[in-house]
Amino acid sequence: MKQDFVQIAELRRTFDVSKPWLNRVLEGGEKQFLKAVDGVSFSVPRGKTFALVGESGSGKSTVARMVVGLLRPTGGAVEIDGVKLGPQARGGAVKALRRRMQMVFQDPYASLNPRWRVGRIIAEPIRAFGLATSKREMDMRVDELLALVGLHAADARKFPHEFSGGQRQRVAIARALASKPELIVCDEPTSALDVSVQAQILNLMRDLQEQFGLTYLIISHNLAVVRHMADQTGVMYLGRLVEIGEGRDMFRNPRHPYTRMLLQAVPDIAAIGATRTAVQGEIPNPITPPPGCTFHPRCPLANDRCRREAPAMRAGVACHAVEEGRGEAA
Ligand SMILES: Nc1ncnc2c1ncn2[C@@H]1O[C@H](COP(=O)(O)OP(=O)(O)OP(=O)(O)O)[C@@H](O)[C@H]1O
Ligand code: SF4
Ligand SMILES: [Mg+2]
User: Fold this and answer.
1) Closest C-alpha to 42, from 55, 60, 28, 20
2) Nearest CA to ligand 2 atom 6
């Protein structure tokens, strides 16, 4: 069987969020662990886009950081083009993949060195990976990268603060492209931008994907953003995937009660005339998640089974009600 470019199996990450040892001794209290990612599996074929969506704290960024090797999983595995990154992965594995995967963050202002000119920022990965043999070749490559993201060669001499938010995101994308990656992981790439600028950046990302056959993992809490980009979308809630859907299917026909709740809260997706309800209820404390289906305190379809038993992912949905055939048409 041919493997997908990105393959994520039963990925887990626990954080120790205990009080310091001495406080525990003096004030009492157990060690506390937070399951930020609790058994997430999905795969992304080469050249395709997988989107991860969910409310704040659902574990999206933690997944992203494990995928690019910035964070070691507690369990499960990430496999990129057949190279395994897991709790027991050999040290060289991440290194071998480093050039081939890059991350673009929400706030390029925080991720671009403010004291460096843009030319140097973009040249840095070229230098680090030894991708140019002369200064001249390096400069040409920087010019080329700037042009690719719709900036001018003269912009190489400017500092990050001399750009608008959208332009800065273009710089961050140029820097990501500099190492000729195959996978780009974008964590909320457009959340900080105006809607019209967001659309421009997303269009640019699509063009680049086509041009270079890039594989994308896009993270967003905004379903409107990913609807236009994703070949597949995974919805996360409290560290778990609750629904995975193909293309626009999930947006037309959301099945999990949580996905429906999220979609109802997105204005430009709600059908005309339908009532728009905000996302209801609070996300529970992830240190002490509710038993059974962790969504049950917020779910209109919850019953006794939901309060007892965690639903398994079946045919793209993890929900007892969907499995039992109740409430899907609601
Ligand atoms: N280094 C850490 N130490 C302790 N807890 C952490 C750490 N990193 C993340 N968490 C916790 O793990 C959970 C998932 O966090 P994560 O940042 O992955 O969520 P997210 O879906 O990206 O949220 P957001 O939309 O706000 O970016 C949260 O409860 C968060 O507080
Ligand atoms: S398993 Fe139960 S509580 Fe969880 S989403 Fe489905 S119906 Fe709601
Ligand atoms: Mg995040």
Assistant:
1) 60
2) 319
Cβ 286 under 6 angstroms from ligand 2:
no
- Rounded distance from Cα 124 to ligand 1 centre (Å): 29
User: 254: Cβ below 6 Å to ligand 2?
Assistant: no
Rounded to two decimals, the pTM is 0.92
Strand order in the sheet with 33-44: 33-44, 6-16, 75-80, 83-85
Rg (CA), the chain: 21
Structural domains in the chain plus CATH codes: 6-100+181-323 (3.40.50.300)
Place of tokens 């933690």: 62
Instruction: List the chain pLDDT tens, one digit each, 330 residues.
Output: 668 999 999 999 999 988 888 888 888 888 889 999 999 999 999 999 999 999 989 999 999 999 998 899 999 999 999 988 877 767 777 777 889 999 998 776 678 899 999 999 999 999 999 999 999 999 999 999 999 999 999 999 999 999 998 999 999 999 999 999 999 999 987 777 888 888 899 999 999 999 999 999 999 888 888 888 999 999 999 999 999 999 888 989 999 999 999 888 766 544 434 444 556 788 888 899 999 999 999 999 999 999 999 999 999 999 999 999 987 644
User: What is the distance in A from the centroid of ligand 2 to the CA of 38?
Assistant: 17
Ligand 1: residue of 13, 14, 15 to mutate (most ligand atoms within 8 A of CB) is 15
